[in-house]
Amino acid sequence: MVWSYAEKKMLIAGEWIDADQRIEVIDPATQEPVGSVPKGSADEAEKALASARRGKEKAAKLTVRERMDVLHAAADELKNSSEMFAACMSAEGVKTKAEAESEVRRAEETLRLAAEEARRLNGEMISFDQMPGNGDRHGYYFRFPLGIVAAITPFNDPLNLVAHKIAPAIAAGNAVILKPAAETPLSAIMLAEAFEKAGLEADILNVITGRGREVGDPIIESEDVRMITFTGGLGAGEAIAKKAGLKKLSMELGSNCPALVFSDADLDEAAQAICDGGYAAAGQNCIGVQRIYVDESVRDAFESRFVPLVKELKIGSKQSETTDVGPLINEEEAKRVERWVDEAVNAGAQLLAGGERSGAFYEPTILADVPPECTIINEEVFGPVVTLNTFKSESEAVKKANGVNYGLQAGVFTNDLNRAMRMVHQLYVGGVMVNDSSDFRVDAMPFGGVKGSGIGREGVKASVNDMTEPRVVGFKLKLEP
């Protein structure tokens, strides 16, 4: 299906509204406009907050069955319009056609997982009589919704990461204010349309588009908002945390994921997994492989397998079935990646593949023997570049893997179970994937990281739990006549 230009509106208080100014949504590959959205202001943010205050009362009154039904109905809408959703994502963002189709399937799964977690949102009995003198006390706790959740989402997964915030919030009985990325708001608005068709009551979901400071700050700073769930860069996350005040925060702030390849690993499988994990979405993936560390005894053998795989990757139109790597989100980001690569090469790194830019496209690139002080070793590149360095021992591998201010996920390639378990316990990350790259996730698992990679965990069950609070109920009863 071919995407056609679409003018979308904001959803506030159950109405689709416009603004005096609009923001053009640009296809980063062609630099052609593919749609537009309103440029919201602080006034629209205040209206969204007022709506959400009404919405939290409505959401809390929804029965578990009603929450489940609306989530399944929205998933059905998504499934029935999957081609249109995929075409939209591929047009407005960085995903190839195949990557966009995969994301639509994942988003549907995320909505259905949230529906199932709604039925499992339970408490448990509390034995008050464990304390002496409390034999006449009985009680339990249950989980109740926070009220209003603010969701701020990035450009790289413009549908599924929106689903990961909206769906658990609704499953938990909250109202949601969504602020999607200004670069890729169209598919998020389409998901809101799906919820409207699914019968979600007005005021429970508000979607506001615009620039972060203009529409985001009033929402972030509002005392009515009880939780902010944010996916984006570390700097933006730190700024939000300073403005938020006393409220819950869940933040996934990116990474610089390592892959450790030991001498006993299946090198063919490791090379293919790292190639797949390093260049999907043109490297604009928080769990994509960025740093490879290989046992020096198998460095040449690994390199001889890995480099040809990367050189075979095809750059081109996002709509082509044969394209492996699409564009970066804009030319400025491609230029930044170019600067980081040039810095590493000037510092002595070897360029084994790639290294060329054309507009917003950057070739799949491998840098070997990169000095540890280089930016591309220490920061998140968010582009199609991986580094290849070596280690002599397990302890050196762990030290290098842990030696950055990020810790989202890591990949470990070994056929030694004892070594694998040592890595599981020594790598300071949120997830360790053994004999797979860091680029593995199922939407049901707890997902998040440590250090600069963020706080809290997403994944539907973890999010539903985080978007509720426990309330203890105690009775003092006379059970004897």
From TrEMBL:
SUPFAM superfamilies: ALDH-like. The keyword Oxidoreductase applies. InterPro entries: Ald_DH/histidinol_DH, Ald_DH_C, Ald_DH_N, Aldehyde_DH_dom, ALDH-related_metabolic_enz. Pfam families: Aldedh. Residues 16-473 form the Aldehyde dehydrogenase domain. Residues 30-53 are annotated as: Disordered. Residues 97-124 form a coiled coil. Belongs to the aldehyde dehydrogenase family. This is Glyceraldehyde-3-phosphate dehydrogenase (NADP+). The lineage of its organism: Bacteria, Bacillati, Bacillota, Bacilli, Bacillales.
